[in-house]
């Protein structure tokens, strides 16, 4: 989530609300105040990816070992200062945020198109000003941080809510991220990742108390301010009339030339004027358009109220932040034991996509770096559709066996011509294996001697490469996964050539032993030299490679090969 213009307002209009601090100094004070307690910073991992991904040649998405070095340097800096880190990743897209998610995906799609147009026109790598996170980096970063010995969790609800809750519940030193909503939550201090100087651990810290003093509000009023300014739950365009009226009636006598600043100050003045009224929330609703859904306002307010907190702006506290726990009984998957196992794995950062499919029958995938104008190769969402359909058959079974009874999953995937007006309804497709599609219960809970082989054969069947499963089983897991995907691509994409396969295999076999420093000095590929292969998006591969994740390196896979985030 986020409130448009709020951080800029804080930095430019009320600078006393933010100031530079030394995190090691704060950690030392924390140790003094709480003896025996290790100073802990909870990290909004998704908000830090751009900061962590420092390799220059980002368009290839291939500098994996360099990226690992960047992560290790980050961890080492905090460990040296005696600060423990806890990383939380987005684990679910709540349906109340779907409209905003779609807007962002379409906006990112436009930005990716500009990147490829730049490459085709200039025949060179775009600079950092056009930087777009390499596909799959969030998925890989989770496993990388685990391999580096860090605590990693995936959220059951919106990540910023879980980050704020964790920080408050565990008396953390603060939150590290880049999201204006952390100024709204009544939680621990908020530190900026973008302003962080790693060598000195100096960064910008925001003060909710000073913001409230500047706006003449209380901390409990900040959620209402966020809702009336517009956030991911209440789109700003729905509030423009209300904001115009506020600006006309409650504009400060010291009018600011910046229009957004005027709006923020005027809305704050309005809230301050009705705060003491016992029916203040009714006055808010009266000022909003008649067509405005008041339930939306309630949901917006609830999204900022952490466990064991209350809000004077909510008549009742019907909070839904425990949605996953509450919905277990209403889950799409009826097997409660399986649901709990999947839920636990999800929280630990494993098999994240599966949880939402089993709970809500929904799958989604963010943007990947692929050229929509290149008609020779279909989008990755279409290339791997059949593999996903096989996985859905494993997750839900295949009904009564007739085509009309196969389970259906709602997919929000990005590919050319898809404007995301509604989800694609994608049927499960049974696996063509002896004995039929194995059940999820058997694959997860069976402790028999042959279960590992069944799991491996099932994975191969999902990618329709079971005809060479014996040969693949003789390879290291990372190489088997690579070969599995290359064979699948060769079968599915007509323009995938033998030269492409040779290039991938030679990189995988020859470069894995090189250090990050050696890889930095390898000769670059020719200008505009992007391989025609697009990133896959398959949770089965995610599960099959996590045990040997350190063997995978993006220098050995110069283009988009492994699972997308």
TrEMBL record:
Cellular component annotations (GO), alphabetically ordered: nucleus
One GO-annotated biological process of the protein: peroxisome proliferator activated receptor signaling pathway
Keywords: Activator, Differentiation, Nucleus, Transcription, Transcription regulation
Subcellular location: Nucleus
InterPro entries per record: Coact_PPARg (IPR026784), PIN-like_dom_sf (IPR029060)
The organism's place on the tree of life at top rank: Eukaryota
Annotated function: Functions as a transactivator of PPARG and ESR1. Functions in adipogenesis through PPARG activation.
Family in the record: Belongs to the constitutive coactivator of PPAR-gamma family.
Self-association state and partner proteins as the record states: Interacts with ESR1 and RXRA. Interacts with PPARG; in a ligand-independent manner.
Name listed for the protein in its UniProt record: Constitutive coactivator of peroxisome proliferator-activated receptor gamma
Originating species: Leptobrachium leishanense (Leishan spiny toad)
